Amino acid sequence: MFYQLGLIGYPIKHSLSPWIHETFLQRTKLNGNYSLIEIKPKDSFANAMDTLKKQNLHGFNVTVPYKEKIIPYLQGIDEQAKHIGAVNTVLCKNGEWFGYNTDGIGYVRSLQNHFPELKTEKEKQILILGAGGAAKGIYSALLKNGFQNISIANRTIEKAKTLLTKQSNEANIKVITLKEAEENIALFDVIIQTTSVGMKPNEAETILSLHALKESVIVSDIVYQPLYTSFLQTAQSLGARIHFGHTMLLYQAQYAFEIWTNHVPNVQHMDKELQKILEG
Ligand code: ATR
User: Fold this and answer.
1) Contact 133, 86 (CB under 8 A)
2) How far is ligand 1, taken at its centre, from the CA of residue 190, in Å?
3) 162 C-alpha vs ligand 1 centroid, how far in Å?
4) Residue whose CA is closest, atom 12 of ligand 1?
5) Is the pLDDT of residue 19 over 80?
6) What is the pLDDT of residues 24-51, one digit of tens each?
7) Which of 72, 151, 235, 266 has the fewest CB atoms within 10 Å, i.e. is most exposed?
8) Phi, psi (degrees; rounded to nearest 5) at 63
9) Residue minimizing CA distance to atom 6 of ligand 1
10) Where do the H-state alpha helices sit in the chain?
11) How far apart are the CA of 128 and the centre of ligand 1, in A?
């Protein structure tokens, strides 16, 4: 078996996915390759999909700006992708395409692998900062994983309310303002920053000010450029255990690779290597 994999999107020249998936192929001793398939926004997406179908790939990743645009070309879509309204992984089987979204589940895996107590202690109080696409995926994966106590804080409160689903009724979910989150910050066991605040070139920005954190709190930031955001620096100086954004990249890719090949690649030490690549 030769696994033909790839990535569609634009721009994708600097994507880290080829390095990640080629490392996975080596580690699982599977044959295959991972190619970059650039589709320019000015080109016809329908024609590009026709061409792609003929290439008989086993699967591919989808990145901006096509995570929503791909949906009409799929014959099936998984629960997470449907809920988020965006697909980042496609499995091709007998000429049919099935869409998945591995971001949220990948993120939760990454968090649980770094902090194994989160595999069992589902009563932890979790705070999600932000209510965009990334927050949606993480929120839905946390619920699916059994976490019950989740607060969502966003600058635009109405947007945070749109994250609530039928599943939310059964759990202890709160939608709060950023100010309320800041005032009650010491109540949370896990704080997850899902917005682009603090990303290059606005490294000095933080979404809220951290103070009086709960002892042994976990603070996570999905921003990975820079890796060590101001938010994480402050959290660490206040005694928090911190979780870096780039690990999410590895675990969402691990789950995608699993969907394509049924093999779970070992990601050990890849975070250090990825860190070196990101830091140039
Ligand atoms: P993504 O899909 O990458 O998550 P998005 O859907 O554009 O991106 O969502 C961006 C998130 O970052 C939102 O929660 C946004 O808050 P609003 O809903 O109020 O717009 C949040 N965000 C972006 N810039 C922000 C800022 N300067 N301060 C606070 N929140 C910000």
Assistant:
1) yes
2) 20
3) 14
4) 195
5) yes
6) 999 999 999 999 999 999 999 999 999 9
7) 72
8) -125, -175
9) 132
10) 17-28, 45-54, 79-84, 103-114, 133-144, 157-161, 166-169, 178-183, 230-237, 246-261, 270-278
11) 12
Residue 50: burial class (beta carbons within 10 Å; 0-12, 13-18, 19+)? exposed
Looking at ligand 1, which residue's alpha carbon is closest to its atom 2? 133
pLDDT in tens, 80-117: 999 999 999 999 999 999 999 999 999 999 999 999 99
Structure token digits, residue 175? 């939608």
Q: In the annotation, is 67 catalytic? A: yes
- Identify whether the C-beta of residue 195 lies closer than 8 Å to the C-beta of residue 123: no
From atom 5 of ligand 1, which residue's Cα is the shortest distance away?
A: 132
- Residue 221 amino acid letter: D
* 266 residue type, one letter: N
Compute, in angstroms, the gap from residue 217 CA to the centroid of ligand 1. 24
pLDDT of 153-165, one tens digit each? 999 999 999 999 8
Residue with tokens 């999905």: 222
C-alpha 54/C-alpha 86 separation (Å) is 23
Question: Residues lining ligand 1, judged by CB closer than 6 Å?
Answer: 130-135, 154-156, 159, 195-197, 207
The residue whose CB lies within 8 Å of the most ligand 1 atoms, and thus the one to mutate among 66, 67, 196, 223, is 196
Long-range contacts of 38-47 (CB under 8 A, 24+ apart): 38/8, 38/9, 38/10, 38/11, 38/12, 38/13, 39/8, 39/9, 39/10, 39/66, 40/10, 41/10, 41/65, 45/69
